[in-house]
Write a structure and sequence with these properties.
mainly alpha; 3 domains; 1% strand
Length: 328
């Protein structure tokens, strides 16, 4: 099989699994809505299923990470539009290592599956507000027009710029609530203002986790692998994760890699928070990498997909620790 056929195999597998992952989201949301689950619960269950499937891909095996690292450098090694030429480099490494229990074709196919599930999972969680409106309205026909998950453009920073979101919002409110200026709802604007003024739980941490998450014990635990205690005090930690950014001057500095931080913040939002999205993290201007650079939506999105299996397991251990101690 020549290299161009490996690229064809990757693209074919990516397309199949991207549609497969999207269908899982649709099917699960319909099922969970019929069971009257809260949207956040439905979102967490669906996300966990997607991550479990992705986590079982060959590319996440410890002995395969050397191959994944090569793929992650594709944008630096090859010109735009030719990034998949990196598969040739991966093939050379594959041959040199001498993997015996699977073929290179199987690896390429599973690599594409991993990338597809990562992309769909990110889209689902980053733009969960759109799907929440679908959930509230029990309206999922829009999925029929998005077989490859193109309903939302990554460049859209504000839900109000998404036509589908505005349409769904308008269906949730009586027409008399609409203003004359472009159909924006006075009540919605009031709700947004109230949310922004809520300085005690700005990123919407679930109430059952607040006591432990804001404790000194949790802060001390997180300083082992994530939080830089030389630059970030317990007070800083609580201020940044709990309060409106405009009400304090604190910052959180991390010691972990940006890949681990991105996965960590993403899992926090999936499991414990409701408003700790990549966009809100960037807008807050309060989260910094171990190089003292502000975290942005773009580097969070790119880095989260590249977290190593070890980093992912470390993050999941942290999430479980917080949950277990919150229930104690």
């Amino acid at each position: 099989m020549k290299i161009n056929k490996y690229i064809d195999l990757y693209n074919e597998s990516y397309s199949i699994h991207r549609k497969e992952a999207t269908k899982i989201i649709k099917d699960r949301l319909i099922t969970y809505n019929d069971k009257k689950l809260a949207f956040r619960n439905a979102q967490n269950k669906t996300s966990a299923e997607l991550w479990k499937i992705e986590g079982n891909c060959l590319v996440n095996r410890e002995d395969c990470y050397v191959l994944k690292e090569i793929f992650q450098k594709r944008n630096k090694v090859y010109q735009t539009g030719y990034e998949l030429n990196i598969i040739d480099d991966i093939n050379e490494k594959f041959i040199n290592v001498g993997y015996k229990d699977f073929s290179f074709e199987e690896f390429v196919s599973d690599l594409a599956k991993s990338e597809a599930y990562n992309y769909v999972s990110f889209s689902f969680n980053e733009y969960a507000g759109v799907y929440e409106k679908m959930f509230e309205l029990n309206r999922f026909d829009d999925f029929e027009n998005m077989p490859e998950f193109n309903v939302i453009d990554y460049n859209v920073r504000d839900y109000d710029q998404i036509d589908l979101y505005r349409e769904l919002c308008s269906l949730l409110k009586p027409e008399e609530d609409l203003e004359d200026n472009g159909g924006e709802k006075e009540e919605s604007e009031t709700c947004i203002k109230i949310e922004k003024e809520d300085s005690e739980n700005y990123f919407k941490l679930e109430k059952k986790y607040i006591d432990y998450f804001t404790s000194e014990d949790c802060y001390a635990y997180l300083t082992d692998d994530f939080i830089d205690d030389q630059q970030t005090t317990h007070e800083d930690f609580v201020n940044v994760f709990m309060k409106c950014p405009e009400t304090h001057s604190s910052e959180v500095n991390f010691i972990a890699t940006t890949k681990a931080i991105s996965f960590f913040l993403g899992e926090l939002n999936n499991e414990l928070f409701e408003g700790l999205t990549q966009t809100s993290v960037e807008d807050s201007k309060k989260f910094k990498t171990n190089n003292n650079r502000l975290l942005t939506q773009s580097n969070l999105a790119h880095s989260k997909r590249n977290a190593t299996p070890t980093e992912k397991n470390m993050v999941r251990d942290v999430i479980n620790h917080i949950k277990d101690n919150s229930c104690a």
